[in-house]
Amino acid sequence: MDNELLLSARGVNKSFGSTRALIDVDIDIRRGEIRGLIGENGSGKSTFSSIVAGAQKEDSGSFVLKGEEYHPKSMVDAQHHGVSMIIQEMGTIGGITVASNIFAGRLEEFQKFGLLNWKAINEAADKVLVDIGAPEIKSTMLIDQLNFEDRKIVEIARAVSTDPDLLIIDETTTALATKGRRLIYNLINRMHERDKAVLFISHDLDELMEVCNTITVLRDGVIIDTLDRSNMSIELMRKLMVGRELVGSYYRPDFDGTCSDEIVLEAKQISLRPNFMNVDLVLHKGEILGLGGLSDCGMHEIGKVLYGIEKPLTGEVRLTKGNVKITDSVMAVEHNMAYVSKDRDKESVILNASIQSNVVLPSLRSIKKKVTGFISPKREKTLSDKQIEVMSIKCRNGKQLVKELSGGNKQKVVFSKWLGTDSDILILDCPTRGIDVGVKADMYKLMMDLKKQGKSIIMISEELLELIGMSDRIMLFKDGKFSKEFMRSESLSEKDVIEYII
Ligand SMILES: Nc1ncnc2c1ncn2[C@@H]1O[C@H](COP(=O)(O)OP(=O)(O)OP(=O)(O)O)[C@@H](O)[C@H]1O
Ligand SMILES: [Mg+2]
Fold first, then answer.
1. Ligand 1 within 6 A of CB of 45
2. Which of 221, 344, 452, 497 could cysteine-pair with 23, CB 3.0–4.6 Å?
3. With a 6 A CB cut-off, is 44 part of the ligand 1 pocket?
């Protein structure tokens, strides 16, 4: 490609204490280019892109943007220069409207005689929302009224509201369902057609192959290679990211569908309008039950009802052991259930606490000394060190604050939190979202181990291959209703499944 150079980065370095997040990074991005940026969790993708977007400062190195030296002082300053970013972590501000979120930090552009012209702000916000294909989100709505996906869409609106030349999309698509993804792909296409550029970060290698013209691989802060369409392949990407060959499929190899007939959990006729209606479900001992469908099919809410976070309008959830009816999540924890939410930053970790405090939180009961009720710091440390190793959490040590970790490593903390508890029933909502390919394989292995120990897992997933690859049984949902069940089978393919979800 010999289009005009848009951004050129040279010798960029960045460290956090003893962690070297970026080492002598050189990257050139041309107009019209859709550049993928890939690498394992903690390899430096967000660090690099947030420096380009003005969110933090490099230690050394230089940038040239559109032929001129570029040193953004802030994200707003970067936007003025034509660089916008949709950040990986939840980036909307609660308690204010959609419009205020879209123009956060730039409201003075709508100032006249010292007064903010709210009519103009709202109109401009609505225009952006319509323009990106989300007219159902209105400028005057309170951001808190929106669900996770729609809030992400507001962030997209904010990023494109300045009509940037370079749009950075950091791990956004894996947080989005069909609607949001389509919206992003349209946007990317438009950027390409208008001779602008996109820096696209994702762990979904198929998606990267579809979307990008070129893909740059980072490993431990160092650029390993840049592939173009002529040599791009999933195998090569995996190998370059991880630094070793990952062979074969990482899903479970067995197909004999082994789990007992013993029922451990049963939901009868549960409904939560408008999300889902009259769902019956049983979970067996040692079973991996996959719940699949589009993101808005109700399956995420089913998970919440099973765990007692949401109260169903009708029906009940019962555990066989002790014949307990689950009515809230405290009860669920007490009866050895675990739940990993899809919306992990919001529901699942305490960002301002250490890895260790987060990991031991749900396990406090089991590591309390029986007699004194005292929690030994040594046992806390042992448990957290073990989880850091099992999940290969990239960190300095267990004392490091969770907020300092890369996105994927935060998610591993959430997972460890629950794995440490020795739960009998685990409800995992999109467990591998944002997790790199190497660790994904480890997580699947972990699920298999749990299964072998007789634990039961409900895995809610939007990825059909993962459902087919890992489940003993798959229940599919469409528009809030159960649509089809499949038993584990070697011959089951995506094609068989897809007609029952759309
Ligand atoms: N504010 C911070 N304080 C300390 N360390 C940090 C901070 N931000 C990032 N790091 C470290 O820098 C390294 C690179 O992190 P970065 O967030 O760029 O990874 P990433 O490639 O985006 O990973 P992921 O795929 O998990 O999002 C990690 O080791 C991370 O822990
Ligand atoms: Mg990141």
1. yes
2. 221
3. yes
Average pLDDT in the 281-285 region? 97
Q: Which atom of ligand 1 is nearest to the CA of 405?
A: 31
The residue behind tokens 């949709």 is: 86
> Could you list the residue range(s) of the whole structural domain that residue 128 is in?
5-242
Domain stops at, among 242, 259, 287: 242
Indicate the top mutation candidate among 199, 406, 437 to test ligand 1's pocket, ranked by most ligand atoms within 8 A of CB. Answer: 406
Best CA proximity match to 175, nearest among 344, 427, 307, 40:
344
Residues 286 and 433 in one domain: yes
Q: Is there a contact between 434 and 408 (Cβ–Cβ < 8 Å)?
A: yes
Read off the DSSP letter of residue 488. -
pLDDT tens across 475-502, in order? 999 999 999 999 999 999 988 998 898 8
Atom number of ligand 1 nearest to Cα 44: 18
Cβ count within 10 A of residue 342: 24
Among 422, 453, 481, identify where a domain stops.
Answer: 422
Q: How far is CA 127 from CA 85, 137, 389, 440, 490, in A?
A: 19, 11, 49, 40, 49
**Nearest bound ligand to the CA of residue 394:** 1
Q: What is the reported pLDDT for 364?
A: 61
pLDDT of 384 > 90? The answer is no
Q: Which atom of ligand 1 is nearest to the CA of 221?
A: 14
In the numeric block, the tokens 């909502």 are attached to 429
pLDDT in tens, 214-251: 999 999 899 999 999 999 999 899 889 887 665 566 78
Is the predicted pLDDT of residue 347 greater than 70, yes or no? no
Q: Relative to the alpha carbon of 393, which ligand is closest? A: 1
Q: Helix (H, G, I), strand (E, B), or coil: what is residue 57? A: coil
